[in-house]
Design a protein that fits this description.
4-stranded antiparallel beta sheet; alpha+beta; 5-stranded antiparallel beta sheet; SSo0622-like fold
Length: 253
C-alpha cells in the first residue's frame, strides 16, 4: 500500500489515531491523505506566504538603512569628519553583508562648555583631542574667555551597530561580553533594524572653570590630565581589541 509522509506537527491529534508514527513522521493511509493534505496545505501555504512577505520586507528595510548609513560614512570620511581610530572598523562593517555602523566616537579628551541651564543643547566643545593632550594645551583653552562653565572630560568610545536580525545582533553581544565591554545592549528591535550600542568605561568628568574662574589647582589639573591620558590610551587599546574580535568572528557573516 502506498503511503504519504507528513510531519506530525502539521496534523491535529484526532487525525492520527489510526496511523503509524515513526521517528517523528506519520505514515498516512490513502483514505486519510486527501483530507489531511487539504488541512496541511491550507494552513502552511498561508503561513508561508505571510512569513515570506515579512522576511522580504525586513530584508528590504535593512538593505535600505545599510545603504543610507554607508553613504553617510563615506561623506563624513571625504569631509575629514571621521575619527581616525574608527575608519577601518566602519569600512569593515560597511563591506559586511549583515551589519552597518550608524554613528560613533572613538573616545576623546575635551573641555566642554556648559551654560547655566546645564542641558545638552546648551553645551559646546571648547577644545577636544582624539589623542593624549598636554597641560599647556588645556591651559590655553582655560585661559580663553567664554560665557560658560568649563568641564574637563575624558570620554570612552561609543559605537552604534546595525544588524540584519536578532541572530546577527546576538553575535555582537557575545563578542562584547567576550572582550569585557561592560556597557552595551540592543536599543532598537524592529524587523530589518536591530541597533546595538556599545560603550567603553574609561571616563573622567570634573568642573575646572566656574563663573570665569579656574577652580582647580595647577597640580590637580596636571593630575587630571595625566589620568585622562592614561584612560584615553587604555580606551583606544580596548577599542582595538574589540575590533580585532569583530574581524575574527564576523568575517564569515
Amino acid at each position: 500500500m502506498n503511503k504519504k509522509i507528513i510531519s506530525d506537527d502539521k496534523i491535529p491529534n484526532n487525525k492520527i489515531s489510526n496511523n503509524k508514527i515513526s521517528n517523528n513522521k506519520i505514515s498516512v493511509s490513502p483514505s486519510d491523505s486527501k483530507s489531511l493534505n487539504k488541512l496541511v496545505s491550507k494552513k502552511s501555504f498561508s503561513d508561508s506566504v505571510s512569513d515570506f512577505d515579512s522576511f522580504k520586507m525586513a530584508n528590504a528595510r535593512f538593505e535600505m538603512i545599510k545603504k543610507r548609513h554607508g553613504e553617510t560614512f563615506l561623506k563624513a570620511l571625504n569631509e575629514g569628519k571621521m575619527d581616525e581610530q574608527l575608519i577601518e572598523l566602519c569600512h569593515f562593517f560597511k563591506n559586511s553583508k549583515n551589519y552597518f555602523t550608524s554613528s560613533g566616537c572613538a573616545g576623546r579628551i575635551l573641555l566642554l562648555g556648559l551654560k547655566k541651564g546645564e542641558s545638552k543643547k546648551d553645551s559646546f566643545f571648547h577644545r577636544k583631542w582624539h589623542s593624549t593632550t598636554s597641560f599647556d594645551a588645556v591651559m590655553d583653552g582655560l585661559n580663553e574667555s567664554v560665557d560658560a562653565d568649563i568641564w574637563f572630560k575624558a570620554e570612552p568610545f561609543i559605537l552604534h551597530i546595525g544588524a540584519r536580525d536578532e541572530f546577527f545582533a546576538s553575535k555582537i553581544l557575545n563578542i562584547m561580553k567576550e572582550v569585557g565591554v561592560k556597557r552595551g545592549g540592543i536599543m532598537i528591535t524592529k524587523p530589518g533594524k536591530y541597533i546595538l550600542e556599545l560603550q567603553g568605561t574609561q571616563s573622567i568628568s570634573c568642573p575646572v572653570k566656574v563663573d570665569g574662574k579656574i577652580v582647580v589647582s595647577e597640580d590637580y589639573l596636571k593630575l587630571l590630565i595625566k589620568k585622562a591620558n592614561e584612560k584615553v590610551t587604555k580606551n583606544y587599546s580596548d577599542l582595538e581589541i574589540l575590533f580585532s574580535k569583530f574581524k575574527e568572528v564576523l568575517h564569515k557573516f
